[in-house]
Amino acid sequence: MKDGRPVYVVDGARTPFIKARGRPGPFTPVDLAVQCGRALLLRQPFDARAFDFVVLGCVNVIADEMNPGRVAALRLGLGADMPAWTVQINCGSGMLSIDEGFRRIESGRADLVLAGGTEALSHTPLVLRREAVDWFGRFAKAKSTWEKTRLFGELRPDFAKPVIGLERGLTDPIVELNMGQTAEKIGHLFDITREAADEYAAGSHDRLAKAQDEGWLKDEVVPMIAPDGTLYDHDDGVRRDSTPEKLAELKPAFEKPYGKVTPGNSSQVTDGASWTILASEAAVEKHGLTPRARLMDSSWTALDPSIMGLGPTLAVAELLKRREMDRDAIDLWELNEAFAAQVLACLAAWQDADYCRDVLGLDAPFGAIDRERLNVDGGAISLGHPVGTSGNRIVLHLVNALHRKKARRGVATECIGGGQSGAMLLETV
User: Fold this and answer.
1) Model pTM above 0.70
2) Is 318 inside any structural domain?
3) Strand-pair category, 53-57 with 112-120
């Protein structure tokens, strides 16, 4: 296939991912994006107002920060004349922001783009029950004292009990399954055992702990300082003492009592932000930038929401088929760890001849992915999954991991709530 203009990833950074602890964390979505963006922009050789536009992925936008992409751009000092917007496709929002920049640069409509993702899941709002909302609406419209007195008689104690917005947001409105239940379903379809899921989860923590100890994340993660002066300088969800045996003690979270998906082998509820800087060849020459990777292609696919976790199998198959590549052409893989069972089900599906023929349209199984090339420094199980950010993070980290391992090609992919998926192909420069 014929490519458009080359598009390069020239730099990027992310915040530490901070585990949610039952109350709003110290940073809103825009706070996270600004803390991350300031450090990234300060090390650039060009004026921050040189960008053509800013695009930011965010799913749980809070009421005080409508269009967080624009709010973040203004707080970062990019100027009132800087176009900036927010994109939302659930878990793929941070990757979609990169894709918007990629396609506009490729087509000649832009030269320099700031693309990111941010999410503060700890700030997900509490919402009133529908019955309570209806009552408050009728009470507000009541004109006489008698009407208001009568309505007070209908007031129920449970009206004061809020519903956690995140729980509703993570439940698909079409199939009425929460994301954990969709992981249970595909785990069942591909015979993923509880033991295998726990072993995978423990490995994710081991890999992140090693990456932290070896300093492999020091150029990727920029520290943050909270309003109270607390320093956040590392991903704090990692459990260094995690073992399959300890994880086996946890009870199922979504399908009690026999389910296989637990809090220990699922991604963590987390706050965090990530930015990448994309540039054309003209921008690279003009500003003296150093390309780190070239964005080669992307693919977006969809399937039944009840099996949304299998989405990466479709997106990757379509992407590599279009590029006339096979599995062995890819050196490193980032497959977002929404759930251990979901990752393992994708790996199993790629090896299943019937699935590859009937669903992916392949003449032979896609084949096994070497686990030593997959999520080499851990993933969302140990890092956390701030949904608007994760797609951006896995692309950024893939670039860094490819350079560290002196590898050439990588694919970043993820399942997306609602039954969609995205994948990106990169080559190091």
Assistant:
1) yes
2) no
3) parallel
